[in-house]
Amino acid sequence: MRIVIASRNPGxxxxxxxxxxxxxxxxxxxxxxxxxxxxxEDGRTFAENALKKARAAAAHTGLVALADDSGxxxxxxxxxxxxxxxxxxxxxxxxxxxxxxLLAEMASIPPGRRQARYRxxxxxxxxxxxxxxxxxxxxGEILTAPRGTGGFGYDPLFLVPRLGKTFAELxxxxxxxxxxxxxxxxxxxxxxxxxxxxxxR
Length: 201
What we know:
Blueprint: E1 2-5, H1 10-20, E2 26-29, H2 46-61, E3 64-74, H3 95-105, E4 115-125, E5 131-142, E6 158-160, E7 165-166, H4 172-178, H5 180-195
Parallel strand pairs: 1-2, 1-3
Antiparallel strand pairs: 3-4, 4-5, 5-6, 6-7
C-alpha cells in the first residue's frame, strides 16, 4: 500500500517514515505532489487540523493519507501556544523566533510552575472516506534557556523530567520511547495494519 504523509516538514516526514518502516508500506511525502495547494490550518483543535490536511491529501492524490497536527501547551500560558505553536511569533515565524517569544512570555514564571506538554493528533484518511484519529501526549517542563542541538521547534526548551534531558538532547531511541507523535502513531498502528492487509499485533 502506498501512503502519503501530508507534510512538507522534512524532519516530521523522516520521523514518521522511520516509524512506518517494516510495515510493508511505500511512504511518500508531499514533495512528490508539488501541485497540492497549501492547506490552511485554521482548525480550533489539533484534531480538526490533522483531519483537514489528511482529507485534502487523500482527495488530491488518491492515496491513503496520514497527517498530524501537534504543538506545545503551557499551563502557565493557559494552554498556549497550542494550535498556534508553529506561528506563535507570527505568520512565517521560525523556530528561533517562536522560542524567543515563549521565553519572553514565561520570563516571570518561576520553577515549579513551568509545566507543559507536547500533544499530537494523527489522522489517517482513505480516498473512500474512512477516517481514524489517535492522540499522544508527553508531559514536561519549559526551561529558561535552550539545551541540545537535535530536534526542531520547541525541543531545546522542552525538558522531560524523568530523563533529565530536553527533546533536543534525546537519542533517536529515547525520542521514539516518549514522543507524543510516536505515541499517537503507535495507537494508530492497528488501523494502518488493517488498511495494508496485515494482521494487527
